[in-house]
Write a structure and sequence with these properties.
With about 700 residues, this protein is α+β, with helices and mostly antiparallel strands. It contains 20 helices and 24 strands.
């Protein structure tokens, strides 16, 4: 580099201003301006054809033999000949120059990176060490100019002009305008690359949204679809081309399209996300229920609004929900029918059992010899076992129907445990079994819980322990398992030295009607409901019932129940198990259609010193109340002609005389569900007692309402 133009041998690199105003310059200038205008407005799809025409036009005008464009691939580190025009008789080289390594163009690329062009007047005068000398010589090139194609100052390729048939000198004016031409080519390539990138991005986006199973769409402010995924097209039964830039009105009935339009407008106007169920009919006429989530998207630069929608076809879900509702209704109907059946069965069994146990109770109060007392005792025990089974079946029905309510009332755990064990001790002593009770000192004296349900659970567990143990000891323990802020987890455990349970049977031990061995039922009795009921009651109280057992060694049941803390000063009201009665010339009307039950109740009233009459139905009871004075009515609920409910309502409304509208009426019924008691009270009865009658409970009610 010795002169001001930085010449080295036969090639140079510089910027040269042009000042020549010749007609040739003006013609070339006009060509360049025309080409620039063409590329500004040219569609991208016409890009390749326009570039080839441009190379031909310029090449013929400046009378060179070859014009070409190379583009750099920085990933593969190669230069690729992408466009070429050759004068007539000149051999094309484009096919031979598709992957020229950067190393071959290294010197030229370094010059281009500085924004400078390369002009070689005589290729043969290039240094032999230059890697491009032999490449150019093999193509027969005598002279050439290479202009860099720049984007943001970085070379992306170059445009070249070859003279093959003669050495060529380019004027400054030609060089200046050819520089402008290179800039036009750079912009054209940039536009093509931008469009290609946009198309690739669009294709990428389409592939992503097409991979999503849910239909997706985008609408513009004219409510026309501008983006769709394949799932949306498949869902409606049209191609993407058929749907794009169309609105709902071209594919759906107007009434349906109006609904879509209004809901879309709501999102466009408010900007709030919208989620709603819609109904559409596809191209085949099939109806769908869809859940559509619509959101607003606003372009930051232009402020253009778009609605993005995601559809979930919930037709099958709705059908499944409907089927589930039907199944639940059927199940509920079946449960109701079963509960009604059990209630009716209870009624039908309890009525004769009332007679059996009532007669046994009356017999026990007479003068009997030892053998007769034994028979009566056996009769009473059998009747009680029968009632236990009936009560268990009813408890299962109540739990399934959700009719058992857990209460939180003050309870004394020590008193509760004694009440559980007292009646069982005699049974244990008859088998020479010992019952040990241990309560740790940290168990509070008073807590809040459902004493009746805890009693029921522990009575079942301790009773089973005695039932299935022939020798040894039954250990009952109570301790604090965990302490919380307002609750204490109380742990009850019942351990026996009985027959035990094998591992296979343990997984089914809490199943209803399950017996480990059918011989157990024959030997010990029971319906296999006690443990099932106990487990469900414990869980209803928020606790847990678990079991540990070793075959032929014994079993331990563990009951964890959370009980609420309470003021230790709270005292439980003493519960009397024995009631006495002072008749004081009271008269009772017994309304009962079952002869045995009526006779037994009348005999019992006589033993209490009460006068009593009987009526076989509600209508007869009303007639007797009109003509006779009574102090209390024992009313059966299920009777012919007029049942106890309607009779009570009529009495309260004055059908038996104004003086009897407030007469105490005690329901005595074989229906023993909690709902039955509520029903009795709703009809105006004052009390409720279930059959078989517990005579101590009956005395309590008589004392309450006759004093």
């Amino acid at each position: 580099m010795t002169d001001k133009n930085q010449r080295t041998g036969a090639y140079q690199y510089q910027y040269i201003p042009f000042h020549d105003k010749s007609s040739n310059h003006r013609t070339l200038h006009d060509i360049v301006m025309a080409l620039a205008t063409l590329f500004i407005n040219m569609p991208v799809e016409d890009h390749d054809h326009a570039v080839n025409d441009m190379l031909k036009t310029v090449g013929e005008h400046i009378q060179v033999d070859r014009v070409y464009i190379f583009e750099h691939d920085y990933v593969r580190k190669i230069c690729k000949n992408t466009y070429e025009w050759c004068a007539e008789g000149i051999t094309p080289e484009i096919d031979n120059l598709q992957a020229t390594p950067f190393t071959v163009f290294a010197d030229f690329m370094d010059i281009h990176s500085k924004g400078k062009y390369i002009y070689v007047h005589n290729v043969t005068e290039m240094p032999d060490s230059h890697p491009m000398k032999f490449v150019l010589a093999d193509q027969g090139i005598k002279s050439l100019i290479l202009y860099p194609l720049l984007q943001n100052g970085n070379p992306i390729g170059f445009v070249g002009f070859d003279s093959v048939r003669q050495y060529r000198t380019f004027t400054n004016q030609e060089i200046g305008l050819l520089k402008i031409l290179a800039e036009i080519v750079s912009n054209a390539l940039l536009k093509r690359q931008s469009e290609n990138s946009r198309q690739e991005a669009q294709q990428f986006l389409n592939k992503i949204i097409d991979a999503i199973a849910d239909p997706i769409f985008v609408k513009d402010e004219d409510h026309c679809w501008v983006v769709l995924n394949q799932a949306f097209c498949t869902f409606l039964g049209y191609t993407r081309e058929e749907l794009l830039y169309k609105s709902d009105y071209e594919f759906f009935p107007k009434e349906q399209a109006d609904v879509f339009w209004e809901k879309d407008k709501l999102v466009f106007d408010s900007g709030e996300e919208n989620l709603n169920e819609e109904y559409i009919t596809d191209v085949t006429g099939k109806k769908h229920v869809i859940s559509t989530k619509k959101s607003l998207f606003i372009l930051e630069k232009t402020g253009a609004k778009y609605l993005v929608g995601v559809i979930r076809d919930i037709t099958e879900q709705k059908q499944a929900e409907e089927a589930l509702r039907d199944a639940l209704n059927q199940a509920q109907s079946a449960t109701t029918a079963k509960s009604q059946f059990l209630a009716n069965m209870s009624h039908e069994i309890r009525t004769p059992m009332n007679g059996i146990l009532g007669i046994a109770t009356l017999l026990a109060s007479t003068q009997l010899n030892d053998e007769q007392k034994q028979f009566v005792d056996m009769l009473q025990q059998s009747g009680k076992r029968m009632m236990t089974i009936i009560n268990d079946i009813l408890d299962i029905s109540k739990i399934e129907a959700g009719k058992i309510q857990i209460v939180n009332e003050p309870l004394n755990i020590r008193t509760l445990l004694r009440s559980v064990l007292t009646p069982i001790v005699k049974q244990a002593q008859s088998k020479d079994l010992q019952i040990d009770l241990k309560i740790t000192d940290d168990v509070p004296a008073m807590m809040l819980g459902d004493a009746a349900r805890i009693d029921q659970v522990l009575t079942n567990l301790v009773g089973n322990a005695v039932k299935f143990t022939e020798t040894g000891t039954i250990k009952v323990a109570c301790s604090v398992a965990e302490t919380y802020h307002q609750q204490i987890m109380i742990r009850f455990s019942v351990t026996d030295t009985g027959i035990g349970i094998d591992k296979e049977a343990l997984s089914h031990i809490f199943d209803p009607f399950y017996q480990v061995d059918s011989s157990i039922t024959r030997q010990h009795g029971g319906a296999g409901l006690g443990l099932c009921i106990s487990k469900q009651l414990v869980e209803m109280m928020g606790g847990k019932l678990s079991i540990k057992s070793v075959l032929k060694e014994g079993t331990t049941f563990i009951v964890d129940i959370p009980l609420a803390r309470t003021d230790a000063s709270i005292k439980q009201k003493p519960v009397s198990t024995e009631h006495t009665f002072n008749p004081k010339e009271k008269r009772i009307l017994i309304v009962e259609d079952d002869d045995v039950c009526a006779i037994l109740t009348k005999v019992f009233m006589n033993k209490l010193g009460l006068e009593s009459d009987t009526a076989v139905n509600g209508h007869e009871a009303i007639q007797k109340l009109k003509t006779e004075r009574y102090d209390l009515v024992l009313m059966d609920c299920q009777m012919p002609v007029m049942d106890g409910y309607e009779a009570t309502r009529a009495i309260r409304e004055g059908a038996a005389g104004e003086n009897n509208t407030s007469i105490p009426i005690i329901a005595q019924t074989a229906y023993a569900m909690k709902d039955d008691e509520i029903k009795c009270l709703e009809y105006g009865m004052n009390g409720y007692i279930s059959k078989p009658l517990d005579y101590q409970d009956l005395i309590f009610l008589l004392n309450k309402w006759l004093t």
